[in-house]
Write a structure and sequence with these properties.
With 281 residues, the chain is α/β, with parallel strands linked by helices. It has six helices and eleven strands. It has a domain of 168 residues: Rossmann fold, CATH 3.40.50. The strands form two sheets. It has a nine-stranded mixed beta sheet with strand order 4-3-5-6-11-10-9-7-8, sandwiched between helices. A two-stranded antiparallel sheet has the order 1-2. The protein binds zinc ion.
């Protein structure tokens, strides 16, 4: 067929080259999808807890770190809080990790999380490098959720005082556990839009070293006329949020009791806070 036999290898090589160039140009225009980075919005969803066995996998929207280290008073409700947050995360397809080891506060590890929840932390729990890593995380757009004694934590760290919004009044930290009436000041947020305007519930009611109203957006106030032990007067904020130093912070003073973590309205309030802090709310 070919009189010039030298043409056969020449044409074969030419065909191979054309095919390779075509494939290369196709890949250049349509590169293969990259696997998601740890900070991507959609990450592989895995729940992990020491001793909890194999992780549960599904598609996850965000990843939460729940931190519950205590260096002072330890609330008996911590296990209830952890279980409730684990349930909420699974219901909403968020990945969730739990820790009480401050060594997880490194810049590279925190960068994996959309929200860091301080669940009933107390006392001085960080060294200087751990504080710096957490500050860097917030400055990079991270989210913070503080529950109850998150405001009874790290009193000597001014940046954290600004983040949480207010520390407890060390001379008169709180009331006894009793029923009080909570007033919903802003009903148009993810952590308040399911609440009754007057929310009657039982908790330990915190007093703060200062009224945080000038620093934060107040969501809920507690009516001191409805319980004994309040010392802040007519304006007593107990839940709030604000943009802070590049990130988002949400805090609720409620959540002392184990029963709190079985109350549907309180859990909805918490989840709304997590949505705000994660940038979804
Ligand atoms: Zn308490």
């Amino acid at each position: 067929m070919f009189k010039k036999r030298w043409l056969v290898p020449f044409l074969s090589a030419l065909i191979v080259m054309v095919v390779l160039v075509t494939i290369a140009s196709f890949l250049y225009r349509f590169p293969p999808a990259k696997s998601p980075s740890p900070t991507a919005t959609a990450t592989a969803c895995a729940t992990s807890q020491p001793g909890s066995g194999s992780p549960i996998r599904s598609i996850c929207l965000k990843r939460i770190l729940v931190f519950s280290k205590t260096a002072a008073f330890r609330h008996a409700s911590i296990p209830d809080g952890k279980q409730a947050l684990k349930n909420l995360a699974q219901q909403h397809s968020f990945a969730i990790d739990f820790s009480e080891d401050a060594n997880v506060f490194t810049a590279s590890n925190l960068a994996r999380y959309s929200v860091v929840v301080f669940l009933l932390t107390t006392g001085e729990i960080f060294n200087n490098s751990q504080q710096a890593a957490f500050q860097q995380y917030i400055e990079a757009g991270g989210g913070f959720v503080g529950i109850h004694s998150a405001s009874d934590t790290e009193y000597d760290w001014p940046w954290y005082d600004g983040l949480v919004g207010a520390h407890n009044n060390i001379h008169d930290k709180h009331s006894s556990v009793q029923q009080a009436t909570v007033y919903v000041e802003d009903p148009n947020t993810p952590s308040t839009n399911m609440l009754p305007v007057l929310w009657v519930r039982t908790d330990e009611w915190y007093n703060f070293a200062l009224n945080p109203r000038s620093r934060v957006h107040v969501l809920l106030t507690v009516d001191e006329k409805t319980y004994k032990g309040g010392i802040m007067g007519a304006d007593h904020p107990i839940a709030w949020y604000h943009a802070y130093d590049g990130g988002r912070a949400w805090y609720t003073a409620m959540g002392h009791t184990s029963e709190s973590y079985h109350e549907p309205l309180f859990l909805a309030h918490l989840w709304g806070g997590i949505l705000y802090a994660s940038g979804l709310g």
